[in-house]
Specification:
Layout (H helix, E strand, L loop, with lengths): L10 E7 L5 E7 L25 H4 L11 H16 L12 H11 L8 H8 L1
Antiparallel strand pairs: 1-2
Helix pairs in contact: 2-3
Amino acid sequence: MPFPKNRSRAVRRIKVRTMKGSTTRYERRDKEGAQLSAFSGKKLQAVTNARATPKSMRRPNRKFAGALTAKEAQMAISFASRVKEGTMKMDDVDIELRKYVLGAMAAMAPKKAKKPRAAAKKAKE
């Protein structure tokens, strides 16, 4: 039975013929490739695969970081503001970018003001 770490499909199985003439199987984890943009497929800058670094340092802290390049994120945010204003229709936005435009529109929505707990209790009574 293989070790649990080797049961994944991310592990590459290598068959090696030994000096005795028998073949043995080694498991080697595949190296991860470069992170690519979800929209254009370009390589994302400032995104690393190093497992030793914490997740917060692996990608920049901005909207759609780790998914879109900076120009594509800026484009999605500008499209979202145009759609919200009514100068552009959602049908005019590229279908692959619509998910991000909707996410940007949701982030732009005004947040509801929370009632203080004391006021909420008085309203119930």
